[in-house]
Design brief:
binds biotin; 7-stranded mixed β-sheet; about 325 residues; single chain; 5-stranded antiparallel β-sheet; alpha+beta
């Protein structure tokens, strides 16, 4: 953890310490403490420095600041690196670039806005400035290639856990990657994987969560099918807190035994048991969504009674 993250954590947990006490506790210099306090104030932090009463952190803005995210988690559970961009084409592209340059497991890439945010099946992903959490996480799990699809399930669970931890909402998951509130899409996941010698070499898990959009912030075609945390439960949480918990929960779900992950996902799933129509490799398949296997495939029972695995694609709930 960086001295900056330690300092922010110290300010939260021990209000009223002097600058000297803060520097000593964070194993850094008073100059660094004073410089960071000035920088954070300029970014909108409300920090009170009282000559005899020490330093008090009164409010933190809804900005994406690496040390803020790291400071919200226990030291051994914080991401190894967090990169924040004001604007980029897609955080998934940046995470992939970092992956190829050797970045560590757990790297987080965030952007205030994406010019070419993308969703599954080549669809665009609307990434309005400051209104959502546009986040990519680099994972290097030591998993067989056949389990790669489970990463999307783990990410959907992490998003469901994190949003429910911060907001009084109830989320469901539509296979494979949509997190829904009241039947509307709150978040989506785009997992991009690379393989080497039959093993998963790394994956970039791209997560888009709608946070503070009002209805008219969505393009007209999405207004009846999308929602945001602000629309589902006011007020919206701070995106730094959301990012920290998503990361922590994703790390936990990736470490969970496969059967535990699958059982938790099935509990949250809105698809199983429904009549569904799937479009898969140009074929239309209709039947009952029966289960999900370890590869993340949806097994659909068709009229003949056999189970057809859908590895990727799009489904429509018919009932
Ligand atoms: C979907 O539901 O189709 C998936 C949407 C994934 C969007 C996220 S936002 C962060 C990351 N960067 C992207 O370009 N896409 C993902």
């Amino acid at each position: 953890m960086t001295p900056e993250a330690r300092l922010l954590r110290r300010l939260r947990d021990h209000p009223g310490q002097s600058v000297d006490q803060l520097a000593a506790a964070c194993r850094t210099s008073t100059d660094l403490v004073l410089a960071r306090l000035a920088e954070w104030r300029s970014l909108g932090f409300d920090i009170l420095e009282h000559p005899s009463g020490g330093v008090h952190l009164l409010a933190v803005p809804d900005r994406l600041i690496p040390e803020d995210i790291a400071s919200l988690l226990p030291e051994d559970q914080a991401p190894p690196r967090v990169l924040v961009f004001q604007s980029t084409a897609s955080t998934n592209d940046l995470a992939e670039r970092e992956a190829l340059a050797g970045a560590p497991h757990g790297l987080v890439v965030l952007a205030e806005t994406q010019e070419e945010g993308r969703g599954r099946l080549g669809r665009p992903w609307h990434s309005a400035p400051g209104l959502g959490l546009w986040m990519s996480i680099l994972l290097r799990p030591v998993w067989p290639a056949s389990r790669a699809g489970s990463l999307t399930l783990a990410a959907a669970l992490a998003v469901a856990d994190a949003t429910e931890a911060l907001c009084p909402i109830h989320t469901r998951i539509k296979w494979p990657n949509d997190v829904l509130v009241d039947g509307r899409k709150l978040a989506g996941i785009l997992t991009e994987t690379r393989f080497q010698d039959g093993r998963l070499s790394h994956a970039v898990v791209g997560i888009g969560i709608n946070v503070s959009q009002g209805t008219t912030d969505f393009p007209p075609e999405l207004r009846t099918i999308a929602t945001s945390l602000a629309l589902a439960s006011t007020p919206a949480p701070r995106r730094a807190e959301l990012a920290a918990i998503v990361w922590q929960r994703l790390a936990a779900w990736c470490a969970a035994p496969p059967d535990v992950l699958l059982a938790a996902w099935r509990d949250r799933c809105d698809t199983l048991g429904r009549q569904v129509r799937a479009r898969c490799a140009g074929r239309l398949i209709e039947g009952t969504a029966h289960s999900v296997d370890e590869s993340g495939s949806l097994l659909v029972r068709i009229e003949s009674g056999s189970l057809v695995p859908i590895l990727a694609g799009d489904i429509v709930h018919l009932t």
